Amino acid sequence: MRVDFTKMHGLGNDFVVLDARAAPLPAMDEATARAIADRRTGIGCDQLILLEPSDTADFRMRIFNHDGSEVEACGNASRAVALLHGSAARVETSGGVIAVEPRNGGASVDMGEPRFDWDAIPVAYAMDTLRMPVGWEGLEAPGAVNVGNPHVIFFVPDTDAIPLGEIGPEIESDPLFPERINVNIATIVDRQHIRLRVWERGAGLTRACGTGACATAVHAMRRGLVEREVTVTLPGGDLEIAWDEGNRIHMTGPATESFRGSFEWGDFA
Ligand SMILES: N[C@@H](CCC[C@H](N)C(=O)O)C(=O)O
């Protein structure tokens, strides 16, 4: 079966988008997603995005990490999908329903409400997620936020000085995090500006992580370190994040279509 795809990215966090809204595709599984995402033998991407019909929203977005694991949320892909859809839409994800709206060549996304309870992150046992009594090789007292998917956040004086490629996989797979975790290393520049690098669960170092920017901004706001609207600078560029009085997180930033193509489904199965 010949299948069309769209290659897209948000600040260099790249996606293969398959659209099964009008006509169904063969069932997606972990091995097929991993094969499509492979950068040497597949098309190559950080996340595979599968659009399907939805009973509760305008359409459904399923998200598969580079390693094939299916996950709940992806901020940068939400903006890419808004661009592809071309108008405002409510999108069902397994992390909740989000609202997307194309804006200035990118999109604005209502990412929903953050969760802070230890069992909503989740972590393995009860603890305060604002200042967790844990540490890894000099990285101490992180916070944790679930913004549809799980994030742990460390504030450091210089995010570039942390060997995230080495410590990221160790923290991602620590037994403290039963569903693994996205690892955010952030520096507060001033009350309107955060610098951030992310080791993504199931994808490794990416140029940007939208949910990581949301989780880090909300955590910094909870700690009183920044205002309720901030710019988060990632290696791939800037995102604007706001946490409103109604407890909803808003993310605004660019999205880009790179190219379109097609492939034979069996080639990757
Ligand atoms: N790149 C994404 C996040 C993708 C999912 C994440 N790796 C997870 O496993 O939760 C973003 O822009 O948010």
Automatic annotation (TrEMBL):
InterPro entries: DAP_epimerase_AS, DAP_epimerase_DapF
Alphabetical list of Pfam families matching this protein: DAP_epimerase
Highest taxon listed in the record's lineage: Bacteria
SUPFAM superfamilies with a match to the protein in the record: Diaminopimelate epimerase-like
Chief location category: cytoplasm
Keywords: Amino-acid biosynthesis, Cytoplasm, Isomerase, Lysine biosynthesis
EC numbers on record: 5.1.1.7
Pathway info: Amino-acid biosynthesis; L-lysine biosynthesis via DAP pathway; DL-2,6-diaminopimelate from LL-2,6-diaminopimelate: step 1/1
UniProt record, GO biological process: lysine biosynthetic process via diaminopimelate
Catalytic activity, as annotated: (2S,6S)-2,6-diaminopimelate = meso-2,6-diaminopimelate
Enzyme type, top EC level: isomerase
Sites where the protein binds substrate: 13, 47, 65, 75-76, 149, 182, 200-201, 210-211
Catalytic residues (positions): 74 (proton donor), 74, 209 (proton acceptor)
A Gene Ontology molecular function term of the record: diaminopimelate epimerase activity
Gene Ontology CC annotation, any one: cytosol
Cellular localization per UniProt: Cytoplasm
Record-annotated site: Could be important to modulate the pK values of the two catalytic cysteine residues: 151, 200
Oligomer and partners: Homodimer.
Free-text function comment from the UniProt entry: Catalyzes the stereoinversion of LL-2,6-diaminopimelate (L,L-DAP) to meso-diaminopimelate (meso-DAP), a precursor of L-lysine and an essential component of the bacterial peptidoglycan.
Family of this protein: Belongs to the diaminopimelate epimerase family.
Entries under PANTHER family matching the protein: DIAMINOPIMELATE EPIMERASE, DIAMINOPIMELATE EPIMERASE, CHLOROPLASTIC
Name of the protein this chain belongs to: Diaminopimelate epimerase
Originating species: Qipengyuania soli
Gene: dapF
